[in-house]
Amino acid sequence: MAISLHSAWSKICPADALIEQGDGIRFVISLVEGPIPAFLLRIDGQARAYLNRCSHVPVELDWDEGKFLDASGRSIVCATHGAVYDAGSGRCQGGPCRGRGLQPVACREIDGWIEVEATASRHA
Ligand code: FES
Predict the structure, then answer these.
(1) Residue-wise burial string across 79-109, b where 16 or more C-beta atoms lie within 10 A, e elsewhere
(2) Residue range(s) defining the domain that contains residue 100
(3) What is the pTM of this model?
């Protein structure tokens, strides 16, 4: 049995729906391990996407749906135990993440849409 992998880009939302330092836009990405929650933010004009999974304990980060950022708009704070991540890079800035950052998802803005790279597996 052979397994083939391919990647594709999936439209998530119109580009103007992703507001600078605003609420995150949640989506589900299909990975080899199964469907995984993820989210988009716009930081310094750039779309950023991460798996919605804390590096301390694999739970979702937002304290209310789409609410990821602290008052500065530049840090993602885990709702469970307060791990702090840089919103632009996903790097751990402090707390229980202990140097382990968020897992980024490739994303791009093209033709007025935000797209993420979704990986699909197929048995051939
Ligand atoms: S689960 Fe996120 S800090 Fe513990």
Answers:
(1) eeeebbbbbeebebbeebbeeebbeebebee
(2) 10-123
(3) 0.89
- Ligand 1 pocket, residue 59 CB under 6 Å: yes
- What is the CATH number for 94? 2.102.10.10
Token digits of residue 68: 């990821």
- Give dist(CA 60, CA 4) in Å, integer: 30
pLDDT in tens, the chain (124 residues): 444 455 689 899 999 999 999 999 999 988 878 889 999 999 999 999 999 999 999 999 999 999 999 999 999 999 999 999 999 999 999 999 999 999 999 999 999 999 998 753 323 3
Q: Which of 50, 52, 55, 56 to mutate to test ligand 1, by most ligand atoms within 8 A of the CB atom?
A: 56
